[in-house]
Design goal:
The protein has about 110 residues and is mainly α. Helices cover about 50% and strands about 10% of the residues. It is globular, with a radius of gyration of 14 Å.
């Protein structure tokens, strides 16, 4: 699946993370959102909206799924929400008409 480059993330989307930090999450977000869009052929405007949604999802993953489990001393936790779409990405895709209307689970 196509995904935005770092320049798009910083300049168009307005993201603030460093390239080496955010880009792995951007690539992952493109895979997640690629499965819920209407098609894989976008007009330039649709591609920009998809890229904005990918950036939003990438930041969401970075903030919420940067780890799948953690153990500190006797405390351990796992994060089991992988593959779900954040509200902001969902809203961008829905508003632009790119969202597939099948079974999509959104994280509040």
């Amino acid at each position: 699946m196509i995904y935005p480059d770092y320049e798009f993330y910083r300049v168009v989307y307005g993201g603030a993370e460093d390239e080496e930090v955010i880009m792995p999450f951007i690539r992952c977000a493109a895979d997640v959102l690629g499965s819920v869009v209407q098609n894989s052929y976008f007009s330039r405007e649709e591609q920009n909206e998809f890229f904005r949604a990918v950036c939003a999802q990438g930041e969401f993953i970075s903030e919420n799924e940067g780890f799948s489990s953690v153990k500190i001393g006797d405390f351990s936790a796992e994060y089991a929400e992988s593959g779900k779409i954040c509200q902001r990405a969902f809203a961008i895709l829905e508003r632009s008409g790119l969202l597939f209307r099948g079974n999509v689970e959104v994280i509040a």
